[in-house]
Amino acid sequence: MYFESEILTRRTQPPRNDDGGDYNGRCGARFESKKLAAGTVINNIKSMVAHSLANHQFKVAPSPEELQLLQWYGFSLKFSSKQLKLIQWIPPILHYCLNVDGASKGNPGDCGGGGCIRDRKGFVLVAFAHFYGPGNSMIAEIRALSDGLRLAENLGIQISMVHSDSLALVNSFKSGKCPSWQAYRWWRVAEVLIHRNKFLLNHVYRETNQVADSLANYGVSSKNNEEEEIDSNALDDQVVEWEVESDEEEEWTNDEDEEDDEDDAELDISSASDDEYR
Question: Which CATH superfamily is 96-245+252-277 part of?
Fold first, then answer.
């Protein structure tokens, strides 16, 4: 009997409205033709709007006209204020620095990577743009880093700093955990080279990594593998293009039964085993 009376009591009691509105007033207006005063309705609306605005923080500040209108009605907004940051490319103190970036159109989709090696004056010594086939952005970032490090080692260029605009990639080497199992073999090659040569891997804003970003996008759009070595000592415009022979190791694809296309054949310079770098 106690439970039945408790349930009956709960059913007969009007539900509570946490919005601050008048439940009895709304029921009276609907079933008893009782109308609320206009001032009461306006106050209820303003109260609910103010309550909603107080629980939200906007990313974009309103215009001066919108802010003035809201203040006239007594509303206040909370929005995050943007602070300007002055950023610039940091030259290496010793030797050269490597900037790398990856790009994926569709994520996953066609992906590629690019990068450049520059001296402390900003002169580009070597630039590369590679096409990797299907993959996501993290695969492109990891492969671009691996290709850049291997390219510097093959040319005998001493690198002291490596810049990437992928914070997840930079943190993965600090934690020692690969962010993508699909790209582990390239991540492992990069890890061995970084620790063996004691490279300083830094995260930079994308605004300071525009050269590598453009090269990565070019690799995706051209679907070719290109590398250019610039004679920075002579400081002329003569560019020597050279090719790297592709190996026989099969590249990772989304479809294992995908047919090989000679026109879209991928050039892989990062398929060497880990034993070479230990």
Answer: Ribonuclease H-like superfamily/Ribonuclease H (3.30.420.10)
Taking only the tens place, the pLDDT of each residue in 218-254 is 999 999 888 877 654 433 333 333 333 333 333 333 3
The pLDDT-based confidence of 4 (bands split at 50, 70, 90) is very low
What are the sequence ranges of the domains in the chain?
Answer: 2-79, 96-245+252-277
CA 173 to CA 22: how far, in whole Å? 59
